[in-house]
Amino acid sequence: MNIELRATVALDIPAGQLRERAFAWAKLAGFVPERDEPDRWTFRRGSALSALWTVNVRKVPTTLEVVHLPELRSAGCFLRCSSWSQTEMPWERRTLEGDFQDLVDYLTATGPRSLVDEETERRWQPGRDERVRDEGDGYAG
User: Fold this and answer.
1) Domains in the chain: ranges and CATH
2) At CB < 8 A and 24+ separation, what contacts does 86-89 make?
3) 20 to 30 A from 112, CA-CA: which of 20, 25, 63, 95?
4) Which pTM was predicted?
5) From CA 32, how far away is CA 27, in angstroms rounded?
Protein backbone atom coordinates (compact mmCIF):
# COMPACT_ATOMS: atom_id res chain seq x y z
CA MET A 1 0.00 0.00 0.00
CA ASN A 2 1.19 3.47 -0.81
CA ILE A 3 -1.39 6.26 -0.57
CA GLU A 4 -0.26 9.86 -1.05
CA LEU A 5 -2.44 12.94 -0.76
CA ARG A 6 -1.38 16.55 -1.41
CA ALA A 7 -3.10 19.90 -1.18
CA THR A 8 -2.21 23.56 -1.29
CA VAL A 9 -4.56 25.43 0.98
CA ALA A 10 -5.19 29.15 0.47
CA LEU A 11 -4.94 30.94 3.81
CA ASP A 12 -3.29 34.07 5.02
CA ILE A 13 -2.46 33.51 8.69
CA PRO A 14 0.77 33.76 10.68
CA ALA A 15 2.97 30.67 11.00
CA GLY A 16 2.24 30.47 14.74
CA GLN A 17 -1.49 30.22 14.18
CA LEU A 18 -1.06 27.62 11.45
CA ARG A 19 1.26 25.63 13.74
CA GLU A 20 -1.30 25.76 16.54
CA ARG A 21 -4.08 24.48 14.26
CA ALA A 22 -1.88 21.75 12.75
CA PHE A 23 -0.75 20.49 16.17
CA ALA A 24 -4.30 20.52 17.57
CA TRP A 25 -5.73 18.58 14.65
CA ALA A 26 -2.81 16.12 14.53
CA LYS A 27 -3.15 15.31 18.23
CA LEU A 28 -6.85 14.56 17.90
CA ALA A 29 -6.26 12.47 14.78
CA GLY A 30 -3.74 10.26 16.59
CA PHE A 31 -0.54 11.75 15.18
CA VAL A 32 2.53 12.56 17.25
CA PRO A 33 4.95 15.37 16.39
CA GLU A 34 8.18 14.31 14.72
CA ARG A 35 9.74 17.59 13.53
CA ASP A 36 8.95 21.14 14.59
CA GLU A 37 10.68 23.69 12.38
CA PRO A 38 9.77 27.38 11.92
CA ASP A 39 7.58 26.88 8.82
CA ARG A 40 7.37 23.07 8.55
CA TRP A 41 5.78 20.52 10.86
CA THR A 42 5.90 16.74 10.48
CA PHE A 43 3.72 14.21 12.34
CA ARG A 44 3.51 10.40 12.41
CA ARG A 45 0.99 7.78 13.41
CA GLY A 46 0.80 4.01 13.10
CA SER A 47 3.61 1.48 13.16
CA ALA A 48 5.16 -1.15 10.95
CA LEU A 49 4.29 -3.80 13.54
CA SER A 50 0.62 -2.80 13.64
CA ALA A 51 0.50 -2.85 9.85
CA LEU A 52 1.22 -6.59 9.87
CA TRP A 53 -2.15 -7.50 11.37
CA THR A 54 -4.48 -4.51 11.43
CA VAL A 55 -7.44 -3.79 9.17
CA ASN A 56 -7.53 -0.19 10.44
CA VAL A 57 -5.73 2.09 8.00
CA ARG A 58 -5.16 4.59 10.81
CA LYS A 59 -2.71 2.13 12.39
CA VAL A 60 -0.60 1.81 9.24
CA PRO A 61 2.54 4.01 9.22
CA THR A 62 1.48 7.47 8.09
CA THR A 63 3.41 10.72 7.76
CA LEU A 64 1.72 14.11 7.66
CA GLU A 65 3.55 17.30 6.77
CA VAL A 66 2.23 20.86 6.91
CA VAL A 67 4.33 23.66 5.40
CA HIS A 68 3.67 27.37 5.80
CA LEU A 69 4.05 29.22 2.48
CA PRO A 70 3.64 32.90 3.42
CA GLU A 71 4.80 34.24 0.05
CA LEU A 72 1.93 32.32 -1.59
CA ARG A 73 -0.50 33.05 1.26
CA SER A 74 -1.09 29.35 1.62
CA ALA A 75 -0.03 26.13 3.28
CA GLY A 76 1.10 22.89 1.71
CA CYS A 77 -0.22 19.63 3.16
CA PHE A 78 1.13 16.18 2.35
CA LEU A 79 0.02 12.80 3.73
CA ARG A 80 1.67 9.48 2.96
CA CYS A 81 0.42 6.13 4.26
CA SER A 82 2.49 3.13 3.24
CA SER A 83 3.27 -0.42 4.18
CA TRP A 84 4.78 -3.26 2.18
CA SER A 85 2.57 -5.70 4.15
CA GLN A 86 -0.75 -4.11 3.13
CA THR A 87 -2.75 -4.08 -0.08
CA GLU A 88 -4.66 -0.87 -0.66
CA MET A 89 -8.42 -1.25 -0.36
CA PRO A 90 -10.87 1.36 -1.69
CA TRP A 91 -12.30 2.18 1.74
CA GLU A 92 -8.81 2.85 3.09
CA ARG A 93 -8.20 5.55 0.50
CA ARG A 94 -11.65 7.04 1.22
CA THR A 95 -10.91 7.03 4.96
CA LEU A 96 -7.60 8.84 4.48
CA GLU A 97 -9.14 11.26 1.99
CA GLY A 98 -11.81 12.06 4.59
CA ASP A 99 -9.17 12.59 7.29
CA PHE A 100 -7.16 14.77 4.92
CA GLN A 101 -10.18 16.88 4.02
CA ASP A 102 -10.94 17.28 7.74
CA LEU A 103 -7.38 18.58 8.19
CA VAL A 104 -7.81 21.08 5.35
CA ASP A 105 -11.17 22.21 6.75
CA TYR A 106 -9.69 22.56 10.23
CA LEU A 107 -6.69 24.57 9.02
CA THR A 108 -8.95 26.96 7.12
CA ALA A 109 -11.46 27.08 10.01
CA THR A 110 -14.29 26.07 7.69
CA GLY A 111 -14.65 22.52 8.93
CA PRO A 112 -16.04 20.73 11.94
CA ARG A 113 -14.87 22.75 14.93
CA SER A 114 -16.33 20.28 17.41
CA LEU A 115 -13.02 18.49 17.82
CA VAL A 116 -12.60 18.16 21.58
CA ASP A 117 -9.58 17.16 23.60
CA GLU A 118 -9.69 17.83 27.28
CA GLU A 119 -7.36 14.98 28.30
CA THR A 120 -10.34 12.98 29.57
CA GLU A 121 -12.66 13.31 26.59
CA ARG A 122 -11.78 12.61 22.98
CA ARG A 123 -14.56 13.21 20.52
CA TRP A 124 -14.59 13.78 16.81
CA GLN A 125 -17.74 14.85 15.05
CA PRO A 126 -18.29 12.96 11.80
CA GLY A 127 -17.77 14.98 8.64
CA ARG A 128 -20.29 15.99 6.00
CA ASP A 129 -20.74 12.45 4.68
CA GLU A 130 -21.28 11.02 8.18
CA ARG A 131 -18.06 9.02 8.22
CA VAL A 132 -17.73 6.96 11.37
CA ARG A 133 -14.50 7.32 13.32
CA ASP A 134 -13.21 4.05 14.74
CA GLU A 135 -10.74 3.89 17.61
CA GLY A 136 -10.34 0.10 17.43
CA ASP A 137 -8.95 -2.32 14.89
CA GLY A 138 -12.19 -3.06 13.06
CA TYR A 139 -13.30 -1.39 9.90
CA ALA A 140 -15.88 1.31 10.49
CA GLY A 141 -16.27 2.66 7.04
Assistant:
1) 2-113 (3.30.310.80)
2) 86/1, 86/51, 86/60, 87/1, 88/1, 88/2, 88/3
3) 63
4) 0.76
5) 6
